[in-house]
Amino acid sequence: MEEKKKQKKKAYNPHQMSRTSNVILNVLMAILAFVCIFPFIYVIIISFSDKSSIASEGFQLIPSSWSLEAYRYLWSIKDALFNAYAVTILVTVLGTIISVMLISFYAYAISRKEFQYRKQFTFIAFFTMLFSGGLVPTYIVITQMLKLQDTIWALILPLAINAFWIIMMRTFFKQSVPEGVLESARIDGASELRIFFQIVLPLSLPAIATIALFSTLGYWNDWFNALLYIENPNLVPLQHFLMKIENNLEFLRNNPLISNQVQSTASIPKDTAQMAIVVVSTLPIALAYPFFQRYFVAGLTVGSVKE
Amino acid sequence: MMKKTLVMMLALIMSFSVFLAACGGNDDDSSNSGNSGNDGDEPYEIIWYTIGTPQKDTDKVFEHLNEYLVDKINATVKMTQIDWGDYMKKMQIKINSGEKFDIAYIAGSEYLLNARKGAFLDMGELLDQYGQETKAILDPAFLEGPLVNGTLYGLPANKEIGQQSVYLFNKSLVEKYEMDIASINSLADLDPYLAAVQQNEPDFQPMATFKPYLPFDYILGDELPFAIRLDGDQTKIVNFYEEPETMEILKVMHDYYDKGYLVGDAGTSDDPWPLEVENWFVRKEMYQPTAELQWARSAGYDLVMQPMHQPITFNGSLMGSMQAISSTSENPQKAMEFLNLLNTDPYVRATVDKGIKGVHYEELEGGKIKDIMPARDNYRVPTYSLGNHFILPLYENDPENKWELFQEFNDDSIAAPTIGFYFDAENVKNEIAAIENVRGEFAKIILHGAVDPEEFIPMATKKFEDAGMNVVMEEMQAQYTAWLAEQE
Amino acid sequence: MEWLSRPLRDIYKNRIWLLMVLPGLIWFILFAYIPMGGQILAFKDFRQGHGGFISNVINSEWVGFENFEYLFTSNDAWEITRNTLGYNLVGIFLGLVFAVTFAIILSEIANKKLAKIYQTGMLFPHFLSWVVVSYFAFAFLSKDNGLLNNIFSFFGLEAVSFYYESEYWPFILVFMGLWKSVGYSTIFYLAAIVGIDRSYYEAAMIDGATKWQQVKHITIPMLVPLMIILTILALGGIFNSDFGLFYQLPRDSGALYEATNVIDTYVYRALQNNGDIGMSTAVGLYKSTVGFILVLLTNYIVRKIDEEQALF
Predict the structure, then answer these.
(1) A262 CB within 8 Å of a chain B CB
(2) Is residue B202 part of a domain?
(3) Under CATH, what is the fold of the domain A70-306?
(4) Among B442, B443, C86, C104, which residue's CB has the most CB atoms within a 10 Å radius?
C-alpha cells in the first residue's frame, strides 16, 4: 500500500500537476501579468519625470531627469482632492451594497424553477441590455421626475442595476446552489427568505464577491453621471474631478490667449500631471482588489484542506 | 409566451411615456403660473450658464452685483460656470431636454446647430425692444454675420471681428542667425531659416505641426472641400483641395516634411506644441491685438511674429463668443435687459469680469486697475466669453491704447464673401455624414504635409466625389446663389 | 370571476418571488423602460421649442426611416460592417478561449499567493483609459522616437510607419482589445470554478483521474452554461465597439481607416459637426435591433439543443 502510493506519486499526482507544467504555467502567467502591469509602471515613471525631458524626448521609459512637480501640483489642490475621494468612497460603498442586494434578490428569484414568471422577468431584465433609454429621457427622469440632481443618489441609482450582472448571477445561482439543499430546508419548514439569507448567500460568496467587485469598479470609475447631474463642487466624485482638471489643463494649454485670462500662476505640468492623476485615482482601487480576491480563493482552499 | 411579454412591455413603455408626458405638462403649468408672478414686485432670477472653471467667489460677486441689478432692472442673476471640457456636453443635454434657463454662452457650429433647431429666441427682435444701447455699440459686422436663415439668435461679445494668421518665431534663434523675418511672404520663404535651424540646433524642431494658411473662405470648416476663393470669383463654391494654390503650398509642406522640418508623425498628430516648452522654431497662431504680450507671458521667453495676411472677417470669427437667450426662458425681457447692461454698463461688465472693486481688484489713479492678490485667484473668469470688451478697465501694464488697437484691427479687417450666409445641410445630411468620414481619412495627413499632395489630393477628391461631394456642392451653390441675389 | 381570480391566485402563490424582483422591477421601469420612449426620436426630426422635451418630441415631424439612411447609403457601409463584425467575432471567440484558459490555469497553480498576484496584475489594464494606453502605444510605435523603430534601426532594419500602414492594425487591435478585457472576464470564470462542488474532484481523484482529465471532464463542462450565456449576451452587442480602441489607439489616423473604421467611429465622425439627436438615436436602435434578433436566434438554437442552458 505504502509502496504503491509512492510509486503513483512519481508517475503522477492526481492532486497537482507535474512540477514541469506547474513551472511552465507559472512562467506563462508571470509574463502575462507583467505585460498587463507594464504600462502602469510606465505611467508611474512618467508621473515622476521632468516636464522638460518629456518635451525634448517624448515619453521615455527612463527619463533623463526626475521631478515631483506633478504631485506637488496635486498636493496644492489637496482639499478638493480629498473631498472628491470622500464622495467617491461614500458612493462606492453605498452603491455596491445597494447594487449587490438588488441584483441578488432579482437574480435569485429568476433562477428558481418555483417562480412561475421567471422567464418573463428574465426577459424584462435582458431587454434593457440591448435597448437603452437614451441620454435625454434618462436625464429628464432623474432631474425632473425624481429631482435627484446635485445629490449623491444621482450617482448611485443609475448604476445600481445592470442586467448583465443579473443574468450572470442567475447562472451562478442555478449552478452553485443545489436544488437538494433547498428542498431539505423547505421540508424543515424554513421560509424562502430565510433560505436565501442563510443557505443561498453563504454558498454564493464567490459570485457575490464578483458582482460586488464589478459594481465597485463601476462606481469608482464613473464620471459620466457626475458630468450630467452634479453642479455642486462639494459633490464631485474623484474621477470626474480629475477628468475636469485634465480637460481644463489641456484646453488652457491649447488656448494660451484664454489661459492668460483665467490663470495667474505659471504653467502646470500637463503631461506629468495627467499621469499622476491616473496613479492617484487607480492605485487605491487596484489595492482594494485583494479584498475581494479572498472570496475567489476561499473555496479552493477549503477544497484543498479537505483532501 | 414571449410575444405576450413583448406586447405587455410595449404597453408598459407607452403608458409610462404618457405618464412622463403628463409630468412634463405639469412642469409647464407651474412655470406659467411662475411667469405671471414675475410681473409683480418680486425680482426675477436670471439663470445664466457660461464656460470656465467654477470659481470660489462667484456667489459673493453676484450677491454684490445683484443689489445693483435689482435697482436697475428688478432682476437677479445666478451665473453657473461649467468646466471647459464639460460645457458643451452638458449644455447640449440641458437644451435637448428642454430644461429651463435664460442665458447661455455659445459659439461657432454649436450656435448654428441649436439656433437652427429652435433652441434660442430671436435676438434681433429682443435687441430692438430692450437692447437699443447694445445694438448701437456693437460692430455692425456682428449683426450681419451670425445669421441663421436671416435671423440673429445670439448676442456676440463686442471684440475683434476678424482673424489673422501669423507666423510666430522663437526670437533668440531669429537673432542668433540674423534672420530677416519681415521679408517672409509665403511658406516657401521659410526654407533657408528652417534649414539653418535643422543643421545647427538639434534641440529644436524647425516647424511645429500646423495646417498652412490657404486663402479661402470655408463654408463648413477648413477641412471639408467647400470654399470660396478670397481673391477671384466670389460667386462660385469650389473644392479648395483642387485649386492650384493649395497644391503649390501643400507641395512645399510635403517637401518640408520630407526634409524633416516637421515631426515624422505630423499626419496623426494633435500635439499642441505648448508655448512654455522651448523646442520649436516657427509655428502658426491666430493674432488679436496685444496677443504678442500674452504669448510672451505664457511662453516665458521672447517671441516675434510675422503676419501671413491682412485680418479677415469670417462668419466663424464673428461667432467666436455669444450669449443666447433660451426658448425655455420664462422672462426673455429681463434676460435681455441684463445682457444690455452687461454690454453697456462699465460697472456691471467690470464686476462680472474682475470681481468686486476693493476686494478682487483695486482702481489706481488714472482709472487703470490692479488685481488684489490672493483674493483675485478666487474669482477669475474668462473675459472673452462674457461680453463687450471695449468698456473694460485697463490693467496697469496694458498699453494705453489697447481698445484703439482693437478698433484699428477691426477697421482693417476685410469682409469675407460669405458673411451672413449659412448653409442649411438638411437636404444633404446623408452625404455630409459620408463626407465627414472622408475628411477624417485625408484632411489631416494632406494638410499637415505628411503625404505627397500630387498623389493624395486626386485620391481624396475621388473619395469625396464618391461620398456625394457634387450633390452637396450643387445644393450649396443653389443656396448661395439665391442668398447672393437676396443681398442685392 | 375566473379570469381575475386565477391570475390573482398565481400572483399570491408567487408573492415571495415577486417581492424579490419588485425593487429591481421598479428600477427597470424608472431607469430603463420609461426612458426607452425616447427611441421614438429615431423616427423624428427633432426640434426645440418652448414646451419642454415631451411636447417638443410630439411636435417634431415624423420622418420615417430618414434618420437611418446615412448608415446604408455610404460607400463605407460595407467596410464598417465588415470591420465591426470581424473584430467582434474574433474578439468574442478569442476572449472566451483565453478567459477560460487563464481562469483554469490560475485556479490550478499550486502557489496561491503567486496566483493572486498574477490575477491582480491581469486586472490592471482595465483601469487605464484608452487615451493613456494610446500614449503608451505611441511610445512604442512612433516613427521618430518609438521604441520598436529604435530597435529596428539598431539591427539595421528599415523604420516602419505604423500609423500610416494599415496592415499591422488588425493584429494590434485584436491584441490590445484582449489585453484590456481578458483580465476582467477571467474573473467571471474564476468565480464559477471556485463555485464548483469540490466533491466532484474528490470523486475523480479517487478514480485516479489526472489533472488534465479533471479539467476536461469536470471544470470545462461545469463552465459551459456560463460560456453559453456570456456568448449569447456578447452576440447582442455585436454591432458595438470599444470606441477608444478604434479611435484613440490608432490616433484617428486617416491612413488606417481601412482597418480601424467601425460603425461607432464612423457614426462619431459623421455626426461630430451635426449633433443630430435623431440620427444618433437611429444608429443605437439599429444596433440594438440587430443584436436583439441575433440573441433571440442563438437562444432559440440553444433551447432546441438543451432547454436548461437557454437564456429564456
Answers:
(1) yes
(2) yes
(3) MetI-like fold (1.10.3720)
(4) B442
Range in A3-12, A116-125, C75-84 with the lowest mean pLDDT: A3-12
Average pLDDT over residues A84-104: 96
Over residues B136-177, the pLDDT tens digits come to 999 999 998 899 988 999 999 999 999 999 999 999 999 999
Nearest to C214 by CA among C62, C78, C108, C110: C108
CB-nearest partner of C255 from B263, B439, B445 = B445
Answer yes or no: do A253 and B272 touch at CB < 8 A: yes
Q: What is the pLDDT of residues B125-137, one digit of tens each?
A: 999 999 999 999 9
Task: Report the chain B residue with the minimal C-alpha distance to residue A133.
Answer: B13
Please compute, for residue B324, the number of CA atoms within 13 A of its CA located in the half-sphere on the CB side.
30
Q: Quick one: pLDDT at residue B359?
A: 94
Provide the residue range defining the domain that includes C297.
75-309
Q: Do A228 and B93 touch (CB under 8 A)?
A: yes
C214 residue type, one letter: Q
A233 touches chain B (CB under 8 A): yes
| CA dist., res. B223 & res. B440, Å (int) | 9
Asked whether residue B34 is assigned to any structural domain, the reply reads no
- Number of Cβ pairs < 8 A linking chain B and chain C: 146
pLDDT score of C117 more than 50: yes
Domain count, chain C: 1
Put simply, the answer to whether C270 touches B110 (Cβ < 8 Å) is no
Q: Could you say which of B422, B452, B471 is where a domain stops?
A: B422
Query: Of A8, B114, A18, B125, nearest to C48 (Cα)?
Result: B114
Is residue A149 classed exposed, middle or buried when 0-12, 13-18 and 19+ CB atoms within 10 A define those classes?
middle
The whole domain housing B194 covers 164-209+269-289+296-310
Best A141, A236, A261, A270 member to test B by mutation, with max B CBs in 10 Å, is: A261
Range of weakest confidence among A285-294, B244-253, C80-89: A285-294
User: Residue B245: pLDDT above 80?
Assistant: yes
Band (pLDDT 50/70/90 cuts) for residue A159 is: very high
Instruction: Choose, out of C25, C50, C303, the residue to mutate when testing the contact with B (most B CBs < 10 Å).
Output: C50
- How far apart are the C-alpha atoms of B62 and B79, rounded to whole Å? 8
pLDDT tens string C253-295: 988 999 999 999 999 999 887 778 899 999 999 999 999 999 9
Q: How confident is the model at residue B5 (pLDDT cuts 50, 70, 90)?
A: low
DSSP-assigned letter for residue C272 = T
Chain B interface includes A253 (CB < 8 A): yes
**B78: CATH:** 3.40.190.10
The whole-angstrom separation of Cα A74 and Cα A82 is 10
pLDDT of residue B17: 59
pLDDT of residue A266: 55
Residue type, B383: T
Residue with cell 435664460: B102
Contact status, residue B78 vs residue B48, Cβ threshold 8 Å: yes
Strands B205-207 and B280-287 come out as: parallel
Average pLDDT over residues B180-206: 93
Q: How many domains does chain B have?
A: 3
User: What's the mean per-residue pLDDT of chain B?
Assistant: 89
- Grid coordinates of A127: 431587454
Are B217 and B227 spatial neighbours (Cβ–Cβ below 8 Å)? Answer: yes
Q: What integer pLDDT is reported at residue B15 of this predicted model?
A: 61
pLDDT of residue B27: 43
Q: Has residue C36 been placed in a domain?
A: no
B115 → chain C, closest CA residue: C48
Q: Say if residues B21 and C40 touch (Cβ distance below 8 Å).
A: no
Q: Is C38 helix (H, G, I), strand (E, B) or coil?
A: helix
